[in-house]
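It is worth pausing here to work through a concrete case rather than discussing structure prediction in the abstract. The textbook approach is simple: state the sequence, then state the predicted structure, then interpret. We follow exactly that order.
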Amino acid sequence: MTSSVPLSIDAIRSTLATRALGQTLYLYQDLPSTNREANALTQQGAEHGTVVVAEQQSGGYGRHGRAWFSPPGFNIYCSIVVRGKSQTIPLAQWLSWIPLLSALAITEATQQVTGVSLALKWPNDLLLLDRKVGGILCESTLTTEDAPIVVIGIGLNVNVPSLSFPEELRPIAASLIEAVPQPIDRNRLLAQLLWELEQCLDELQSHGSRRLRQAYMTRCATLGRQVKILFAGDQRLRGTAETLSADGALQVRPLSASSRAQAPALIDVRAADVIHLRE
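Step two, the predicted structure:
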């Protein structure tokens, strides 16, 4: 495999236009996990906006500890330390929106830098032609009620060739390079990603979730689909994903056993695996 242009702190900073995100930036050739490193830095007092980036992860992971394919030289693996919360919405709602607005920021950055339009699978998977091109893992701690810390972990497949994925991932994984004619500048993409994320965080801080909700729904491929919801404890639900609540919950209308029955009430889904069902 031929890698793309290496990541470089100088190259990232050459187009970085943020006030806080990425102003403190650590770049490693290899880490077990950028999230683990960022969490360790928060214990040492890392400031808001600290970013950890790696060319390769030997132990990258996503939700439920699932391994994340992290080969060197092709993709973006980064974690961002976010401190504080919005004064306009409750803490629980602020925390619930961080994964969603992070996914939204990635779609905006990707569109700006590459022209590729990604879709969102609720809550924070990024899709290219119905295959997963990126994912987000947010891990939060509360020092006090007014000083939450969230580490936003991002894995985005950028230049990795499709045939380089392990065979079991090829039907479900994708890379941005499949949709563009030439390798993508990861340094510029990362800088744009941090800028878009900062804009989304500022929007949540200043105005709450209303406009973010509309922007997210515009890109969300889950809405309008029949879905299967897998809750913890083997509970399951089939229904139609109709909309998002103000706190970002997926609102699902269960499938009715009878066409004559009154439509079941919407169920708010806040923590579960969502499977898009074929129409």
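Step three, interpretation. The mean pLDDT is 91. Helices lie at 9-15, 34-43, 91-114, 186-207, 210-219.
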